[in-house]
Amino acid sequence: MESKAYLILENGKVFEGKSFGAKKETTGELVFTTAMTGYLETLTDPSYFGQVVIQTFPLIGNYGVIPSDFESKKPALKAYIVRNWCQEPSNFRCEGVLDTFLKDSDVPGLYDIDTRCLTRIVREYGVMNCKLTYSLDNLDKDIEELKSYKVTDAVKSVTTDKEELFESETHKKNVVLMDFGAKDNIRRELVKRGCDVTVVPASTTCEQIVAMNPDGIMLSNGPGDPTENTEIIAELKKLTQDSYIRYLSWPSATCTFSGCNNRKATLWSQRC
What we know:
single chain; alpha/beta; Glucose Oxidase, domain 1; Rossmann fold; seven-stranded mixed beta barrel; 15 strands
């Protein structure tokens, strides 16, 4: 049964819509994505931890739920906002519907809302806090609480909890992928290019990484404020200062390893 739901913004504006997915109140940072396809990748992208995501494309869910398209095991976002969602998806790979997926993932959704207006607000004022709720009885209190909300422990919440090896067919190179909220496709693309990839937790030390004797070290992107991660930053500084490491910024998914035949590893950082 449809029920009213409200989105309260930090600046005091209130939007009324309808609820789908899990029914729960939640607070997060309001952001938007303009992708016309790939809503499953958005939903399962760890980089959206702590955020309420607006999907600007007006119809979402038309090809259902396809687990092979996921970028992680489960969604990390706080809530999902769409103009309309498709209740009868059609795709030969479809294994479910969006509403059920959100309920199973404990993610609340909001639809039948003016996503264009919401997007213009975020574009003009920048990321702001918001609350998805089902009552406006405590509106003034909710707005005050939104002003002090902050996403914390983002990387700790999404990083892997164990070291895991993914082997390629050709075993050309050995790469360590530091998981700060890495999408699965980063690892898949490296494996496709002949790399044996060891995914490690964000807390992995410089000494532990060097002991793996990698040809390359990749730093994934991730959620939250990077300055929070002081211990991780200290380890990365040790890596860049170590004579074992050669630093190289890697802005694309193309990986050739040219000029990397010496015993020094190459350190990549992924740019969003």
